C-alpha cells in the first residue's frame, strides 16, 4: 500500500509539477492559441493552477504529501473541464465537419 502512494507522489512532484519552476513564459502565444486553442487552454490551466498552488503552499504541490499533489491535479482537471470544454468541443466539431466549397 505504501509503495503505490509513494510512487504517485514522486511522479506528481518530479515529472508533473516540477517543470513549473523552470517554465517562465505563457503556455502559448497568440499564434499558437489560434492554431491549437484546446491544447493551449489545457496548458494554461495546468500552469496557472499549479503556479497558484505553489504560491499558496510556498513549495511544489506534493512536497508535503500525496494529498497536496492529488488536490492540485483535481483543481487542474476542474479548470480544464470548466474553461476548456467549450473550446475543445468547438474545435472538435470544426475538424469533423466537411469543408464546403
Describe the structure.
With about 100 residues, the chain is an all-alpha fold. It has one domain. The chain contains 5 helices and no strands. The protein has helices at about 1-15, 20, 30-35, 35-55, 65-95. α4 packs antiparallel against α5. It starts with a helix and ends in a 5-residue tail after the last helix. Mean pLDDT is about 80; it is low at about 20-25. Keywords: Signal. This is Secreted protein.
Large-scale geometry: elongated
Topology, number of strands? 0
Kindly provide the radius of gyration, computed on alpha-carbon positions and rounded to a whole number of angstroms. Answer: 16 Å
Mean pLDDT: 79
Instruction: Estimate nothing, just give the exact number of structural domains.
Output: 1
Q: Supply the helix-strand structural class.
A: mainly alpha
Tally of helical runs? 5
Strand content: under 5%
Low-confidence stretches: 20-24
Task: Summarize the helices and strands and which ones pair or pack.
Blueprint: H1 2-17, H2 19-22, H3 30-35, H4 37-57, H5 66-96
Q: Short summary of the structure?
A:
The protein is mainly alpha-helical. It is 77% helix and 0% strand.
List keywords for this structure.
about 75% helix; mainly alpha
